[in-house]
Amino acid sequence: MTAIASRALAALFALLAILVAQAVPLAAQESAADRRFAEQLGFPFQSGLVGAENAPVFAWVIDEGGVRNIWVARAGEPARRITGYTEDDGIQISGLTLDANGTKLVFVRGGDADEPDASLPNPGLALTAPRQTLNVIDVAGAALPSLIGEGHGAVFAPDGSTLAYTSKGAIYLWSPDGKPRKLAQLDGRVAELVWSPDGRKLAFQENRQGQSLVGVIDIAVGRLGYLGTAFAYAEDPAFSPDGSEVAFIQYREPPAALEDSRASFWSVVAADVSSGAIRTVWQAPEGEGGQFYGTRGRNLFWLDGGQILFPWERTGWLHVYAVDAKDGGAARDLTPSANEVENFRPAPDGTWIAFTANPGDLDSRRMLRVDIASGKTDSLTGPEVFAYYPVFGGDRLAATVTDAQTPAHMVLLDAMQLLGPKHGTPGYQTPENVTFTAADGLQVHGQLFRGTGAGKRPALVYVHGGPRRQLLAGYSPMYYYSLAYAVNQELAARGFTVLSVNYRSGTNYGRAFREAPEKARAGASEYRDVLAAGKWLAARSDVDEERIGIWGGSWGGYLTALALARDSDLFKAGVDLHGVHQMVRPVAETFSPTERLRQQQLQWNSSPMGSIGTWRSPVLLIHGDDDYNVPYGQSLLLARELTARGVPFEELAFPNERHDFFRFANWLTSYRATIDFFERKLGDGR
Fold first, then answer.
1. Total number of domains constituting the chain
2. Is 8 among the domain residues?
3. Which of 378, 547, 610, 648 is most exposed, with the fewest beta carbons within 10 Å of its own?
4. Does 604 map to a domain?
5. Pick from 149, 166, 185: which residue ends a domain?
6. Which stretches are annotated as coiled coil (predicted)?
């Protein structure tokens, strides 16, 4: 080898050594960033809080990076984990039920909590899909869970001696000293089971095609009867304190051609258990609130004091009302100071109710209490936290609480004490509540995450799903949106300014906002708010108007796709998780043939497919192929159409995964891909 060649080779090795030395720290930095994000996304998420009827005992689920376990606590004592699961296996834990004294806990493991009678999910790719099992465990934690059978919807009898549960339309009874026995097999699916006060009868709600029924089974006699059968939906059965009657909400949906009808579509009725005779306790008058809309929890309670409680939108805002169970009469608004009530629960003594609402500030969520007799209202939480889902354990009140830096955790509200562990993310910013105006004049609310870094920043619009949702300037009590919140915080930390939009058809801004004209398939009016959000960002001095993207899931995926199809000049990239892309559905036969054709064309025009010809921006598509909410075929369709038109797209598909992914590993893969996609398409180093 010549001297020149030797020197050249030495120089080459030296250059390689320098490149390797530079690359190793960079790879280490990227690995550290990935690990940090994985740790932050895998925060312990707490949900499913329940309480015992006669004791201050509570139980809930903590999901830590996909590993789900049950925790219990007695007021004033340390919380304990009573299960020992260790894998991110995609197997849910749901349906927690405590006996009256808080000594035994029943829970469901496996299946789909949202579709409990559907085919079994298998996102963990086991050779055989895991069963849906109903299990019982001593709260003392001295033994492993024992199998009861396959089922869900369990509820203990008042004396704790018997458990009722359901599976695929069958109702079963189980006692600790025996095997389950089938009590009844129904044609529909059982949505709710309620024991009579003496434990001798069982009321149920049965969902069938186009209707729901309320029935009662006399267990000793072995007799089944349906109450108040009508061409309507019957929901939320509740026994009278003496067990002689069952009250429930009965409603009809307005016809498609008269969706805005102000006729009276619902009532509270009571049925005599022995004779089946029906009486109307209260009928919604015509006008505002003539259509039924409920909370996200139970919607009817029959109190020992003779009052029946239910929600009503008489003022255009969802409030809690009371009516005399015997004499009926005018309904009394118990929550006039609330803007919108989200959940409510009466205290065990029946003298007051706890409820969550947003009084004074639409973008808040406080827990309040109101005395039923006097109407005196007090706040139990302040503006520094968001409180959800009131739950009583004996006479003690607990709730799920979040804030900007702390995901959902359980708090004993009467003492403002933690029930269990609390995990914080102190580096997170507190998003700023902002408002802006859509082109048609509607005021829209959102939360702004400011991107780090100097100069004009890339920006993103985030659109939630639902669409009946409201996001706030902190963690959500829903896992799906808590993950999205963490992703938006990570995007902001990497230099992206993010605007999360509460577009029209969402909740907690009143009925007029939720039922906005021309929304969804009738004209996609909610997209006006999304477009306004993009333009609001583009007009900011700290945003680069040439680097604006959009992302969202489910209905948010639909709006993401619509934005990219209609306005690629504004939205330069997007991430669409399990979105709806073709909105055309059969039109109700109550429309004339001519109107039905017009409605179908309007549906098409409201779809991303209706504007596919102007879609140019790149997109990342993400979908699980066992999705029961949005068919996987919606993404198959879009991928074919984008391919045919030469529109660049990337894709992530998850075999056996449901809509709200069951495996944390799949969420982590999706959100790492989301961040990587936006950094490559819109980031500073693109």
1. 2
2. no
3. 378
4. yes
5. 185
6. none
**CATH number for the domain that contains residue 479:** 3.40.50.1820
Range of the domain at 659: 432-682
Q: What does the chain come to in residues?
A: 686
Residue 410 DSSP SS3: strand
List the end-to-end C-alpha distance of the chain, in Å, as a whole number: 43
The whole-angstrom separation of Cα 547 and Cα 459 is 6
Burial grade of 636 (CB within 10 A; 0-12, 13-18, 19 or more)? middle
For range 288-306, the mean pLDDT: 96
Q: What is the DSSP string of 482-548?
A: HHHHHHHHHHHHTT-EEEEEE-TT-SSS-HHHHT-TT-GGGT-THHHHHHHHHHHHHTSTTEEEEEE
Given a contact cutoff of 8 angstroms between Cβ atoms, the answer to whether 468 and 507 are in contact is yes
The mean per-residue pLDDT over the stretch 469-495 comes to: 98
CATH number of the structural domain spanning residue 170: 2.120.10.30
Alpha carbon distance 511, 441 (integer Å): 17
Contact 564, 619 (CB under 8 A): yes
Among residues 163, 185, 207, the one where a domain terminates is 185
Q: How far lies 209's CA from each of 7, 205, 298, 408, in Å?
A: 83, 13, 22, 36
Q: 3-class secondary structure for 210-272?
A: CEEEEEEEECCCCEEEEECCCCCEEEEEEECCCCCEEEEEEECCCCHHHCCCCCCCEEEEEEE
Is residue 643 assigned to a domain? Answer: yes
pLDDT, residue 30, reads 56
**Mean pLDDT over each residue of the chain, to the nearest integer:** 94
* Cα distances (angstroms) measured from residue 668 to each of 40, 561, 573, 632, 653: 10, 22, 20, 20, 13
